[in-house]
């Protein structure tokens, strides 16, 4: 359903992503794991169309997105929740959500807001507050809620659990599980063992710009086993 | 007392026309971090379009509308085309490019219209009594038109789809794109609106300041001071500071020499900057 073929990304003279190919099925969540700096975030950005020099193809449900700019990829069904700077800081929480609904054309804004608030009730309490004044964790939940409520065909999520309290990690894990249950595809970069094991059906391990292995999460019995796998590669 | 009322009104005329120029500057600074030195020339071109239209048709209102449309679309898109290749390049290049465009436009205006000052009669000659003096009704019309346009601009940014998109691009460009906001179209709209705002100010003020190729230079300096003081990229801030500056200059001129007034005004701007930087100014409040 979603497929990336031989993706390459260059920043200046560095060759960051060196031929990544991956697939995500309908209603499937797939994890992308690896050490810091191996190109996971860059891979997500390139899929979204946010970096300039790329090669390779990006296909979503038979549509070739390769030549489209980011905003048209979004309209064809790609969603993106970045790790940092994910919200519009001077807009209120509710405006941030409404702008997500605005792009869906005739979608009912009320239902969009309701979906987001049901996922993360804290957002409803803070709905009239500028998003820039939320804590880092709350900003991440806002961005994830907005990404999920837009119901893209495939959602790209970068480090959703990082810096969150365990209770909130459970909350976002549940939200991802529920979304895949409704047919959404998810490609998630994260390091939380619980999240990966509960939400994902497959894990791609990435090292130095290439994918070095594919695993099922239940092949690992503990966070240490998983970490040993991706820290071990190339070391 | 009549003197004070008179100057209060004059301050509003100056302040609101400055606000139109400055809010346009703030708009494209907010969206693209671009400092546009050609903004004063859009003001000047607006004046010429008005003068030309009034000269040919005698219709003042048509002149104002044409100024906004012609200068807005042609000027805004020319500037965008000029800057498009420079968008992710160092700021100095962008500043030089807008300065260059400003020089070209001024020279072309001189070639086309001559260096002479063109006078335009106000469309309303009536004056109303204000105590012991009489005040031109046309000036009141400028105040009303300026306030109306600024209010409309504010409401547009706050509630209209494209207004919300402009704010989104200003606050977080890549996230806006990733959510499907058509960024190139938003750029074009911001440039057109910005140029149109300056042109409307230039056309409305033509009967008061007259029209000549460098008329924009006198406006642009004040407009920059305002945009900096109002918070770069802040539409509302630019409007408020403009009116404040207009009033300070007008009221000050009752008892003080113009130079002294200008010094006081600049002093106030510096004070404002100090206060602003003490408080948070990290958030763009476009």
Q: In a few lines, what is going on in this structure?
A:
The complex is a heterodimer of chains A (235) and B (286). Chain A is α/β, with parallel strands linked by helices and 235 residues long.
Kindly describe this structure.
The complex is a heterodimer of chains A (235) and B (286). With 235 residues, chain A is of the alpha/beta class. Chain A has helices at 40-48, 70-75, 93-102, 109-119, 121-125, 136-149, 166-181, 193-199, 223-232; strands at residues 2-11, 14-24, 29-33, 54-60, 63-64, 78-81, 154-158, 185-189, 202-207, 210-215. Chain A has a domain at 2-83 and 154-231: Rossmann fold, CATH 3.40.50.300. Helix content of chain A is 37%, strand content 26%. Chain B has a single domain, classed as ABC transporter involved in vitamin B12 uptake, BtuC (Orthogonal Bundle). Chain B contains 11 helices and 2 strands. In chain B, strand 1 (127-130) and strand 2 form a beta hairpin. In chain B, helix 1 (2-32) crosses helix 6 (161-171). The two termini of chain B are 38 Å apart. The chains are: A alpha/beta (235), B mainly alpha (286).
How much strand of chain A?
25-35%
Report strand order across the widest sheet of chain B.
1-2
Q: How many strand segments of chain B?
A: 2
Enumerate the spans of chain A where pLDDT stays under 50 for 5 or more consecutive residues. none
Oligomeric nature of the chains: heterodimer
Give the strand content of chain B. under 5%
Keywords:
heterodimer, A: 235 residues, alpha/beta, Rossmann fold, 6-stranded mixed beta sheet, 9 helices, 10 strands, 37% helix, globular, B: 286 residues, mainly alpha, ABC transporter involved in vitamin B12 uptake, BtuC, 2 strands, 3% strand
């Amino acid at each position: 359903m979603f497929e990336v073929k031989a993706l390459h990304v260059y920043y200046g003279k560095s060759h960051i992503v060196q031929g990544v190919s991956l697939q995500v099925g309908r209603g499937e969540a797939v994890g992308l794991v690896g050490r810091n700096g191996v190109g996971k975030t860059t891979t997500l950005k390139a899929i979204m169309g946010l970096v300039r020099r790329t090669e390779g193809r990006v296909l979503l449900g038979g549509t070739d997105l390769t030549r489209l700019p980011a905003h048209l990829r979004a309209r064809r069904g790609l969603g993106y929740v970045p790790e940092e700077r994910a919200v519009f800081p001077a807009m209120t929480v509710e405006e941030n959500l409404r702008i997500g609904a605005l792009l869906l054309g005739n979608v009912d804004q009320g239902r969009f807001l309701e979906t987001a608030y049901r996922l993360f009730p804290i957002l409803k309490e803070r709905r009239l507050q500028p998003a820039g004044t939320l804590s880092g964790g709350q900003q991440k939940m806002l961005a994830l809620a907005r990404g999920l409520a837009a119901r893209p065909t495939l959602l790209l999520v970068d480090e959703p659990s990082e810096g969150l309290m365990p209770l909130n990690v459970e909350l976002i894990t549940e939200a991802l599980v529920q979304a895949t249950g409704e047919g959404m595809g998810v490609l998630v970069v994260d390091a939380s063992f619980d999240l990966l094991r509960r939400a994902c059906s497959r894990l791609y391990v990435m090292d130095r710009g290439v994918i070095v292995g594919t695993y099922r999460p239940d092949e690992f019995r503990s966070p240490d086993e998983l970490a040993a796998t991706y820290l071990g590669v190339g070391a | 007392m009549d003197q004070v009322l008179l100057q209060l009104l004059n301050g509003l005329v100056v302040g609101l026309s400055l606000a139109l120029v400055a809010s346009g500057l703030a708009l494209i600074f907010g969206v693209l971090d671009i400092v546009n030195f050609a903004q004063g020339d859009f003001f000047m071109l607006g004046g010429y379009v008005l003068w030309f239209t009034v000269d040919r048709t005698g219709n003042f209102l048509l002149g104002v509308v044409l100024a906004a449309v012609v200068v807005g679309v042609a000027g805004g898109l020319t500037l965008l085309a000029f800057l498009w290749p420079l968008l992710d390049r160092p700021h100095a290049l962008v500043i030089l490019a807008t300065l260059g465009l400003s020089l070209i436009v001024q020279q072309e205006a001189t070639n086309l219209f001559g260096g002479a000052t063109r006078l335009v009669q106000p469309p309303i000659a009536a004056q109303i009594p204000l105590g012991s003096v009489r005040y031109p009704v046309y000036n009141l019309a400028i105040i009303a038109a300026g306030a109306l346009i600024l209010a409309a601009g504010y409401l547009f940014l706050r509630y209209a789809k494209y207004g919300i998109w402009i704010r989104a691009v200003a606050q977080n460009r890549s996230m806006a794109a990733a959510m499907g906001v058509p960024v190139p179209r938003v750029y074009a709209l911001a440039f057109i609106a910005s140029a149109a705002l300056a042109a409307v100010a230039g056309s409305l003020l033509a009967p008061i300041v007259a029209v000549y190729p460098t008329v924009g230079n006198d406006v642009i300096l004040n407009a920059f001071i305002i945009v900096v003081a109002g918070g770069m990229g802040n539409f509302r801030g630019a409007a408020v500071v403009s009116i404040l500056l207009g009033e300070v200059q007008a009221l000050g001129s009752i008892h003080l020499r113009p130079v002294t007034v200008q010094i006081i005004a600049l002093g106030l701007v510096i004070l404002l900057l100090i206060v602003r930087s003490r408080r948070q100014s990290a958030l763009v409040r476009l």
